[in-house]
Design brief:
Blueprint lengths: L8 E3 L4 E3 L11 H5 L10 H20 L5
Antiparallel strand pairs: 1-2
Length: 69
């Protein structure tokens, strides 16, 4: 992932990668807030897994419409 805000990158001299710091002081990281396609989300893992379970259940239910169990 490329960080438009210059946070993620490499320090060649130190030979280390610099990770995302999640924009301290902000409720939501700048990249998530600015993403024009909503491809990035910022949720707690517990909430995200609930969202994904709900999406999977809805997809399964749509596929079962009109079919006998």
């Amino acid at each position: 992932m490329v960080c438009n805000y210059g946070v993620i990158g490499r320090q060649k001299e130190a030979r280390v990668a610099v990770k995302c710091d999640l924009c301290p002081g902000r409720e939501i990281p700048a990249c998530v807030e600015a993403c024009p396609t909503n491809a990035l989300v910022f949720l707690e893992v517990k909430k995200l897994s609930g969202v994904k379970r709900t999406e999977a259940a809805l997809k399964l239910a749509r596929g079962m419409q009109g079919k006998a169990l």
